[in-house]
Design goal:
The structure is a homodimer. In chain A, about 30% of the residues lie in helices and about 25% in strands. Chain A is of the alpha/beta class and about 350 residues long. Chain A folds into two domains: about 160 residues, Rossmann fold (3-Layer(aba) Sandwich); about 150 residues, Dihydrodipicolinate Reductase, domain 2 (2-Layer Sandwich). In chain A, the strands form three sheets. Chain A has a six-stranded parallel sheet with strand order 2-1-3-4-5-14, with helices on both faces. A six-stranded mixed sheet of chain A has the order 7-10-11-6-12-13. In chain A, strands 8-9 form a two-stranded antiparallel sheet. In chain A, helix 1 crosses helix 11 and helix 5 runs parallel beside helix 6. The radius of gyration of chain A is 20 Å and the shape is globular. Chain A starts with a strand and ends in a 13-residue tail after the last strand. Chains A and B meet through helix 7, strand 13 and helix 11 of A and helix 7, strand 13 and helix 11 of B. Chains A, B: This is Dihydrodipicolinate reductase. Chains A, B: InterPro entries: DAP_DH_C, NAD(P)-bd_dom_sf.
C-alpha cells in the first residue's frame, strides 16, 4: 500500500518533490500546504504544473493546496504519516512549523539546512523539536545534498575504512551558471562588491548549512570542537562573464567562496569545508580528503547535482525516517538513505 | 569504560586488528582464540608481535591465546561483549563458529566474505546464524573493504542522491604488486594458465564476496535479481613482470579479472561489479557509476587500500553492531560505520 504523504511548502524544490513522488507508486500525496495567495485554494496539479495525462496528475487534481496544516489534514482522504517540509533554510522560521507537524503525529523530512544538525548552533530549537517528536512518537530529519550528503554523510562514510583520521577536508565547486535562476541570485552573481558585503552583513546571505555539517561530522567522529568558524567571501570577476540570464562586469561578483572549519581544544583544525559556488566555475567537483591512516580521497567528478539530488535525498530518506526511533535525527544516525525501486 | 573484546582467529588480519585495538583506549582485548599449534598457549603479545613498551603490550602479555572459545572465555578477566572473527572466507567453515559465539552471548563482527550477505547464496546458514543471534539477543555482521564498502555500502550511499537508478557499476583495480605476499599468492601471480584453470575449477579460488555484494545491493535497492553471475578469468602477462617476491613470465598469470553481475526478470543487467587484482595493474582505483537521474559517478583514486582499511572497517563497525537489533545484519542495515576518536 502506498504511504500517504503531505507536502509543506510549494516553492521550486517542494514542487519538484511532489512531481517526483506523484510519478512513483509507493507514495501518495494526500495533502499540500502553502499560504501564498497564488497557491492556496488551487489544485496541487495546477500549482506543481502537471498537465492532464502526466503520471499522478489525476491524484494531484483531487488535492487542493491549503493555507494551513490543519485545513489540509481536515481535507485529507487518508491521514498522512509523514510531512515533506520545504519552507525555509532557517530554524527560527521553521521550528513552530516542525513542532506543529510533530504534534499532529507526522514524521518529517525537511530541506531546512539549519535542521540538519541544530544541536550545536541552535540547541534550544533542537530541544523543542526533539521533545515534540518524542512526545508524538515521530522522527524529524533535515537533509539534502549539502547539508545531508557531500559534507557530512559522505565523509563520515569514508572514515569507515580509516584506522585513524587526523582531519577531514571537503571541497565542493559548483558552476552556478548551469543552475536555475534562483541559485544564481542566491550566490549574488552580477552584484557589486559593496552589495555583496551589505548582504553578507545581514547574516542570511551565502550558503546555509556548512557550519551544521562541521558540527555533525565533529560529533560523529567524537571530536570536541571548541570553535566552529565560517568565512564568506565574494568570488570576483576578473573578466566579463555573460550568459542568457546574468552579466557580470569585471570587479563585480560571480558568486560565493565560503569556508567553514572546526578546531579542537588543542587548536588543531580537524575539519575544513570549502564551498565555491559561482557562475563560470571551472571543473565542478566534490572531493573529500581524509588525513590519517590510510590517507583517503574520494571525488565526484562534475559534483553532485543540486536540485534533483536534493529532491532525491529527501524522498529517499522517507523510509528511514518512518522507521527511526522517535526524536530529532541526523542523517548519520540512520541506515544510509538509498534509492529504492518504486 | 573500555569495551571488552575477544579475538577469534590470529592470521595476518586478526593480528593486525589486535594491534590496532590494543593501541586504542576504548577497547580491551580480554581473550584470543587460535588452535594453530604455533599460537595456542603463547601470549597474545608474542603472537601478534608486540615488543615490550609498544601500546597495549602489557595488556596483551596478560592474555594467553587459547585453542577454543570456551577455554578463552573461562580465562577472561572480564566477559567480552563482542567477538572479532577472522578465520575463513567461507560460511561452511565459519557457521559453527558464529553460532557458538552467539550462543555464548557474543556480538560478532567478522571478515568472512560470504557472511556479508548470505541470504541469497547460503540461506540455510544465514537462517542458522540469524536464529542463534536472535535467541541470544546479539548481532552478527560480516564486513570489510570488499565486501563491506567499495561494492555495496559506497554505491548504496551514492544512490541516496539519485531520483532514479537504472544500473550500478563498480570497477575496482588493485595493484597486487603493492600488497602483502599472501594476496599475490591469492590472486595467482606467477602461476601458469593451466594451474589457474585448475584452481578456478575448485570453486574456492578468486576473490570471495563479489556475488554477495551483488545480492546485497539488489536487495537494498529493491531489485529482484533472478540471476547472479560470476566470471573469473586470468589476467595474463604480455611482458615479463618481476618484483622482489614474484616473477611472471609472458603467458603466465598476473592475477585475476573477475566480474559479478545481477540480472532482473526482464533480462536487464542492473548490477555489474568488476574486480581486477593483479601484479603491475596500472592506475589502481575504485569507481562507482550509477546510470539514472541524475547519472552519478564517484572515484577513489588509487583505490581503497586493502589490509589496513579492512581492519579499520571491522573495528569501526563494533559500536553499530553492539547497538543493532539482534540478528544477522548487513552493513547497509546499520548507521554507517565511522572512525571514532578513541
Amino acid at each position: 500500500m502506498a504511504t500517504p504523504i503531505i507536502q509543506l511548502g510549494l516553492g521550486p524544490i517542494g514542487q519538484g518533490i511532489v512531481r517526483h513522488i506523484l510519478a512513483r507508486r509507493d507514495y501518495d500525496v494526500v495533502g499540500a500546504v502553502d499560504p501564498a495567495p497564488d497557491k492556496a485554494g488551487r489544485s496541487l496539479a495546477e500549482v506543481v504544473g502537471l498537465e492532464a495525462g502526466a503520471p499522478g496528475a489525476d491524484a494531484a487534481r483531487s488535492v487542493t493546496v491549503r493555507a494551513s496544516l490543519d485545513e489540509a489534514l481536515a481535507a485529507a482522504s487518508v491521514a498522512p504519516v509523514l510531512a515533506i517540509h520545504t519552507t525555509s533554510s532557517f530554524l527560527s522560521q521553521v521550528t513552530p512549523q516542525l513542532v506543529e507537524a510533530a504534534d499532529r503525529g507526522l514524521n518529517v523530512v525537511s530541506t531546512c539546512e539549519e535542521l540538519s544538525y541544530p544541536f550545536h548552533h541552535h540547541p534550544d530549537q533542537a530541544r523543542a523539536i526533539d521533545e515534540a517528536a518524542r512526545r508524538a512518537g515521530v522522527s524529524v530529519l533535515g537533509t539534502g545534498v549539502n547539508p545531508g550528503f557531500v559534507m557530512d554523510l559522505l565523509p563520515v562514510c569514508l572514515t569507515g575504512v580509516a584506522a585513524s583520521v587526523l582531519s577531514v577536508h571537503v571541497d565542493r565547486v559548483v558552476d552556478a551558471g548551469t543552475r536555475r535562476g534562483p541559485l544564481k541570485k542566491k550566490v549574488g552573481a552580477g552584484i557589486s562588491l559593496e552589495e555583496f558585503h551589505r548582504r553578507a552583513a545581514s547574516g542570511t546571505f551565502g550558503h546555509i548549512g556548512l557550519v551544521e555539517s562541521v558540527a555533525m561530522v565533529g560529533a560523529a567522529l567524537g571530536w570536541t570542537l571548541t570553535r566552529i568558524t565560517s568565512d564568506l567571501r565574494p568570488k570576483v570577476a576578473e573578466e566579463p562573464y555573460e550568459s542568457p540570464d546574468v552579466r557580470v562586469a569585471p570587479g563585480d561578483v560571480l558568486g560565493i567562496d565560503q569556508v567553514a572549519a572546526g578546531v579542537d581544544p588543542t587548536g588543531a583544525e580537524r575539519i575544513r569545508f570549502h564551498l565555491q559556488m559561482y557562475v563560470g566555475a571551472p571543473d565542478p567537483h566534490d572531493t573529500v580528503r581524509l588525513e590519517g591512516n590510510p590517507p583517503l580521497e574520494l571525488t565526484i567528478p562534475r559534483g553532485t547535482p543540486g536540485d534533483v539530488a536534493t529532491m532525491a535525498a529527501v524522498i529517499n530518506a522517507i523510509p528511514q525516517v518512518i522507521e527511526a526511533a522517535p526524536g530529532l535525527r541526523t542523517v548519520v544516525d540512520l541506515p544510509v538513505p538509498r534509492w529504492r525501486r518504486p
